[in-house]
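Dear colleagues,

As part of the handover before I leave the project, I'm documenting each prediction I ran so the next person doesn't have to rerun anything. This entry is a single chain, and its sequence is reproduced below.
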Amino acid sequence: MDNAARMRQRVLALFLPIAAAAYIGGEALSPKGTDQVITTAATAFKVLPIAARHSTQLYLASCLVLLGLAALAVSYAAIAILVRGRGSALATAAALLGGLGAFCGAIVNVLVYPSLAAAATAHVSPEAAAKVLMTAFNSGFGHGFVYFYFASEILAPLLMAIALWRSRSVPRWLAALFLIGLEAAQQMSSIGPIVIVYMLPFAAAMVLLAAQIWKAPASPARSTADHPIRLDAGNPAR
């Protein structure tokens, strides 16, 4: 077995618990009520005072959420390693959709957390801060990333769970736990540290899948010894 392939596989496995820890930590640290898409003045006036009181906390939560989303993008590719044979094409599609969706989610969360904290502490009128936030969210740029992120939140876990289920590479209950846990985690709002309890199934699924990836057999590297090069291939004997 190729030791380099084994090492790369185990590095990928580490991204799953990192994704769970960072994502859950970011949601738990988010000040209550700030995890909202700000498209109206009413929403902006509601969250700006909260953000002004907890700007440092918002920045820290933003760092953890962005790290969690980046690790989640890699995690989709890592989970796809487990699927061989039946469901492999579906797993590849899920990894692509999940990776792009996590990237879009990172852009959306930049609009939600750092932009909100900056607007709340910019020493401008609440009306001006609200207008800046609404302009960003209601732009074509903002809508495009928000819509793709929300669609991928539903489709990517579903496709990956189906691929895991069909391939039987992991216990079917683990495929179901991954789907239920990740979907629930992605739908959680900022309600304080209590979110940790609701996101425990997601954490358990990611740790168990990481263990499966860690011990899964790595694909051996091909060598010329396995497939020798024939020098006379262009001049066949007559």
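The two ends are 40 Å apart (CA to CA). Residues 10 and 214 are 5 Å apart (CA to CA).

All the best with the project,
I.
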